[in-house]
Write a structure and sequence with these properties.
The structure is a single chain. By secondary structure, the chain is α/β, with parallel strands linked by helices. It has one domain: Glycerol-3-phosphate (1)-acyltransferase, CATH 3.40.1130.10. The strands form two sheets. A seven-stranded mixed β-sheet has the order 1-9-6-2-5-3-4, sandwiched between helices. A two-stranded antiparallel sheet has the order 7-8. The longest helix has 27 residues. The protein is globular.
């Protein structure tokens, strides 16, 4: 892929925005750490990640935008075992806080937008996978929805790189659900959490464009199935 075009420099943010981020970033990190410390988490399917890591093979983690809090937590924990994790985050000012948080948590941040700079984002993700063996997270219905509709980006990236898509989901026995487009869920402190990791899905490099949509629908069904499986684990754990 041609990488001769330099990435544009990030614009300097106004002082008010920088001060706001200086307050928001540590506050969000504190809330996340409190949730991650107090919730009781069980992971199912960890062997899929371990196998890929043992083969020194990057992969493309995918989950619904709603599922950030504990799918990201699980992946961030795997960094301790050597996972090179990446997050594609908007280059706009709205992405600054998220970029700072993920960078502080040890992940590689790739600034780009699957909406406004889709081709460049795919190129940048391809490069970090091929050169640095980064595993870039893909929120399959993000960044603007519609919710729970699998977009083709992860399938295209898997085809280009030869590395697999790895679907995952989580469920909590108690959570707040926001009124946002993605119905974002924030587990309540001391909740029971189940994270479920599915089997890797490779996409043949010779796959025709017309065959990408059926693969996306297959992965969409897989994410929904994993979510139901996670909910079932949580219900059984919470039963008296």
């Amino acid at each position: 892929m041609n990488d001769s075009t330099p990435a544009p420099e990030a614009p300097r943010r106004p002082l008010k925005r920088r001060l706001g981020n200086a307050i928001a970033v540590p506050l969000i990190k504190l809330i996340l750490h409190l949730l991650w410390k107090t919730c009781r988490v069980t992971v199912y399917g960890d062997e899929h990640v371990r196998r890929l890591m043992a083969d020194d093979q990057p992969f493309i983690p995918v989950y619904w935008h709603q599922q950030h809090v504990f799918c990201a937590w699980y992946l961030l924990q795997k960094q301790r075992e050597g996972l090179k994790l990446g997050f594609l985050i908007s280059p706009s000012k709205d992405g600054d806080a998220a970029a700072r948080i993920m960078s502080d948590l040890g992940a590689r941040v790739i600034r780009g937008s699957s909406n406004r700079t889709g081709a460049r984002a795919i190129r940048d993700l391809y490069q970090v996978m091929a050169r640095e063996k980064i595993s870039p997270v893909n929120t399959a219905d993000g960044p603007t929805g519609p919710a729970f509709a699998f977009k083709p980006g992860a399938v295209m990236l898997a085809q280009l790189t030869g590395y697999p898509v790895l679907p995952m989901a989580y469920a909590a026995d108690r959570a707040w659900e926001l009124g946002s487009w993605d119905r974002f869920r924030i587990p309540k402190p001391f909740s029971r959490i189940a994270v479920v990791v599915g089997e890797p899905r490779h996409v043949d490099r010779k796959t025709a464009m017309t065959d990408q949509e059926p693969i996306a629908r297959e992965l969409e069904a897989a994410l929904n199935r994993l979510g139901e499986e996670a909910a079932g684990h949580v219900q059984r754990k919470s039963a008296p």
